[in-house]
Amino acid sequence: MDELMLGTLLASTLRVATPLILCALAGVLAERSGVIDIGLEGKMLCAAFAAGAAGAVWGSSFVALAAAIGVAFALSMLHGYACVIHRGDQVVSGMAINILAAGLTVVLGIACFHQGGQTPALPDEVRLRALWPEAPEVLGDLIGNGLAGYNVLVYLALALVPGVWLLLQQTRFGLRLRAVGENPHMVDAAGVSVHGLRFSALALNGLLCGLAGSYLVLAQNAAFAPHMTAGRGYMALAAMIFGKWRPLPALAACLLFGFLDALAIRLQGAVLPVIGEVPVQFIQALPYLMTVILLAGFMGSSQAPGALGRPYLKER
Amino acid sequence: MTEQVEVKPLAVRMHNIHKRFGTVQANDAVSLSVRAATVHALVGENGAGKSTLMSVLYGFYQADEGEIEIEGRPVRIPDAHAAIALGLGMVHQHFMLVDRLSALDNILLGAEQGFFLRRAQAMARERLLALMQSSGLVVDLDARVGDLSVGDRQRLEILKALYRGARILILDEPTAVLTPAETEQLFAVLAKLREQGCTVILITHKLKEVMRLCDQVTVMRAGRVVHECAIAETTVEQLAEAMVGRKVSLGRSEPAEEVAGEIRLVAEGLRFTDAMGCVRLKEVSLSLRAGEIVGVAGVAGNGQSELLAVLSGLASPQAGRLQLGAQTFGVMPGERWLDPRIARQLGLAHVPEDRHARAMVMDFPAWESAVLGYEALPAYSHKGWMRRAAMMAATAAMMSRFDVRPPLPQLGSSKFSGGNQQKLVLAREIGQNPVLLLVGQPTRGVDIGAIEFIHARLRELRDAGCSVLVVSSELDEILALADRVLVMNAGRITGELPIEACDEKTLGMLMSETDVAQVAEEVEA
Amino acid sequence: MISFFKSGATPPMPRWAELVLMPLVNLAIAFALAGGVVALVGQAPGLVLETLLQGAFGSLRGVSYTLYYTTSFIFTGLAVALASHGGLFNIGAEGQASIGGLGIGLLALWLSNSLPWYLMWPLLLIAGMGFGALWAAVPGYLQAWRGSHVVITTIMFNFMASALLSYLLVHQLKVNDGMAVESAPFGASAHLSGIHQVLASLGVEWPSSPLNLSFVLALGAAVAVYLLLWRSRAGFRLRAFGSSASAAEYAGINPRHQTLLAMACSGALAGMVGMNEIAGVNDKLLLDFVGGAGFTGIAVAVIGRNHPFGIVMASLLFGALFQGGAEVAFEVQGFTRDMVVMLQGLIVLVSGAMSHVVAGPVARLVHACSRREASFTEKETQHG
Fold first, then answer.
1. A57 near A223, Cβ under 8 Å?
2. Residue of chain C with shortest Cα separation from B374
3. How much is the pLDDT for A143?
4. What does pTM read for this prediction?
5. Cβ contacts (< 8 Å) between B354 and chain C: which residues?
6. What residues does each domain of chain A span?
């Protein structure tokens, strides 16, 4: 492998990993507060559609971002309304959001743009551009391609990882959030609103899912296409679990999964010595397989937040 | 207003509080006045409405009607936050702590100063060290709460309330989980706090504790206040009478006519460590004979639950042997421990302590709960198919024999009252004529009428030659039922007495004595 | 005046209201929301509904297609429901159905040219059920013995199933000359007869459609699930475990075995989807033949209240929506079948996740009505 190849591999790893990182952080926030979130996929998909549609209509990246965040936020609030206030089943609610998103985005896409569910391609000025496009020429292939030359969302995602860690571990809000995911009765007894905390976590969760969705449309592709998340939300869920519900390990998992994805694309049809043709499907399935193995306790223990999935009921 | 100088001002005044849950009137025109710098006892049986009243005071529930005054000012307490701001602090029976956080973080939670934790932690630590010194409550602030002992956790809870500036402390059944020695320590702390001007409301149903520590007492029964007076003017008997609403005469039963038949069960050297690594049973040995009721007495949490679990096959011990009839069970290689199915086949029936979690499936109709565990009997199923008509008929028969009301086999299990559920469970377990019956807390959450009925059935069973083991945290119940009493303390059997040799004093001593020794060791160390 | 939207104690609902009224109310709300979206995108909900019903039930051919879709939904709905009675949420019906179909396909490729149909059909069924059961049993095993949660594991297994199927089709089973990723066609004995063929042999004329004998199999499976759950000892134990694991433990029911059993049976039911799609219609193995039926099964189980009868009814509803939706897409410009997917999401949301939101007001309404009725009869008897 030469420098160029390593550089591009690294680059595609980060590009694939960015929406995973944002979504995984969203998952960490929700689940540490005790709310299961398997609706990441649906929220990201809806956000992507919103970004694509708003960007196409108004021609502004800011409006596109705002629309994406707004839609994902609204879905998070819906999840909270069903599960936090009315104590609905969190897994069922998440699945409902995923199924709803898969249908609704296509219906609206066809109705609004008549392109088989796609949104019109966004012009370059709406898309997020690399902050420093000349980097590969200045710094060489490895560093220039691999580390510099990304758009703002990539760096934001990376910066948000320590940010979320700091929020959880070093702030008042984080302490309360961790506590409410372990023992909501205690938080209530301490005079802090359980619902308030869980809704705050879900609000941040919506914000991050919105960013993830808009990344797909504004940076990775140039338009929304039906089902474009293609399971990334579930992969982020896997990364979050693989990272044991902690931001930094979740980042590592996202990078690993992103790398595998990039590798799978690179190795498509390639014939390696000894192994022969690499079954790409195996590499694609590897993140899920590894998560299953980890969860089964074959790779160290992993402990979910104590009150995860249990709605809070005041009457004890 | 009284002009007497020595009367302290009121810290809490609750007036005409009403609170209902569905059809249950939990508090009915309840009034309570607590004077500052006193320890005020709130006593009553389970379900008398004590906890509801205190939950109203602490803002967990809103009263349907009524007023509250704190330190002379009328207030509204919409949530715990408001209660804390008014200087109230509550120590719940089930501790409100997060196992995975440190003791310091647990105290800090909800009372953090500033957005960033580091500074808040440093400031809190300083204040807490001073507080620990003045109150005598010492806890390792950096320990994970999950690693702390029960006594430590309770101290932490009190510390937490004081840290929030509580001047009025509410303690809900604080001694239920404590050993007698820990109880001593707690009472010393509470007395000290009273000297420092703190007001304490103690929810309890242990009257002797009330007499020892408290200044005033309010007795509740069935949602109402039935008695209120200064401790100096009352006796345990008076309070007990007020609590249950009649002369307490839990008569001692006629001892079995023919004492001690054949040996039905022998357990030797049982040792059990729970999932948390806590040793719950230490070298427990016992034997049960036909035609006797053996009572297991002890403060809750001293291994009685684990003993029942191990003897009924719900849990495997780490060491020990068990002989049940002709069969032997063990944990050595090649041996196996009893499981609940084999236990039933051998005629060992079990009425579990936790009716809701174990004895019935609350989603099932009564006729399905009434065969739970016995579904494989030929009477109830044939070649893998359930015989519904037979199950329903059997349930109806159980219901009429045990006076279960309403006698409707189709009704959901959860729709029956506690007493009727317990009667149905007892009917099921007794129904197959067991040679051995294990009963945990036979009358917990059961109304008084049903208590006598259940006791009578247990005695009948004994007279018919069954061997009965009763675990109860109510000493009165043990004294009323047992022919022989085992006392458990800290995972050991610390005493075995025939019923003639039993009185509350002796049993109380046996229930606590090793702990005194332990405390002495700790003090020396 | 009673406030129907206040929170607080919900009066208990009579059984009929809980079993019949609640699903209908939930459906009505979901349909109203979907109708709103239809109107929003500029179409007439009334016209769409009419075309939909016409397409689903207006002709024998339409009915046949409806029942063909219904068949797969019955299988996956039963799969989700059975697991749910064991206290488990099986999100993996999609993957289990793929692997069940894989089993059927492999067996058909292997033996369909050498065995007659009367041996082939039972073997195909066993293969489908067996592969599905095994694929579901692994998450069951992992939950029971290793403590990993079945919800997460089955999600992961869906992706792994899809990767496995894709690998086998692309690398091992693909026919060399074809562009499409699919296996060689099976021999005739692996083809499950269409209903029109069966009826023709009985002298009844019926339009040709993909509806095949799997539909009968599905109805049989529904009856079998009913008998298993409510009439057999195994079902009694499974439901006891699903409702209260601690009570089941007390009753001597091994929790691990129940988890494994529930997942395996659930997977076997999902695996039967392949009978309908692979053996009944396609006669070859291909990608994505499940087409989301596994997720539709969640909606079916939710709206059918996990009861076989409810599931058959709910499957019929979704079958009609899928068939009718296809017709609408053909007739009405700009309508797609994704509308049905959206409706499915709304149904899961309203009657699954938000069941408590709706139940309160409905219960109070029923309560108020029955009270008023009672007072009327009281007055009448007084007067009479």
1. no
2. C251
3. 67
4. 0.85
5. 246
6. 3-298
pLDDT band at C8 (very low <50, low <70, confident <90, very high): very low
Mean pLDDT of chain C: 88
Domain boundaries, chain B: 2-87+167-244, 100-164, 263-355+435-524
> Which of B511-520, C207-216, C368-377 is least confident?
B511-520
| B199-221: pLDDT as tens digits | 999 988 777 778 888 999 999 88
Give how far C247 is from chain B: nearest CA, Å: 4
Give me the CATH topology for the region A3-298: ABC transporter involved in vitamin B12 uptake, BtuC (1.10.3470)
Q: Does B24 touch chain C (CB under 8 A)?
A: no
Contact A49, A109 (CB under 8 A): yes
Residue with tokens 């992993």: A302
Q: Are B217 and B203 in contact (CB under 8 A)?
A: no
Do A296 and C146 count as a contact with CB atoms less than 8 A apart? yes
Cβ neighbours of residue C381 under 8 Å, at least 6 residues apart?
Answer: none
Q: Do C355 and A103 touch (CB under 8 A)?
A: no
Q: Mean pLDDT across the stretch C142-147?
A: 90
Nearest to A89 by CA among B64, B257, C88: C88
Radius of gyration of chain C (CA): 23
Tokens of B471: 């675990």
Domain B2-87+167-244 has CATH 3.40.50.300: yes
Would the CB atoms of C302 and A104 count as touching at under 8 Å?
A: no
Euclidean distance between CA atoms C337 and C356, whole angstroms:
29
Question: Which residues in C lie closer than 8 A to residue B340 (C-beta atoms)?
Answer: 249-252
Strands B263-273 and B319-324: antiparallel
Provide the ipTM. Answer: 0.89
CB B77 within 8 A of CB B68: yes
Q: Does B362 reach chain C within 8 Å, measured CB to CB? A: yes
**Stretch among B107-116, B336-345, C118-127, C211-220 having the lowest mean pLDDT:** B107-116
Q: Is CATH 3.40.50.1820 the classification given to domain B263-355+435-524?
A: no
Distance from CA of B370 to the nearest CA of C (A): 11
Chain A residues within an 8 Å CB radius of C163: 281-282, 284-285
Q: B422 CA to chain A: closest CA distance, Å?
A: 21
Interface mutation vs chain C, best among B361, B363, B392, B410, most C CBs within 10 Å:
B361
pLDDT recorded at residue C4:
37
For residue B58, give the chain A residue with the closest CA: A189
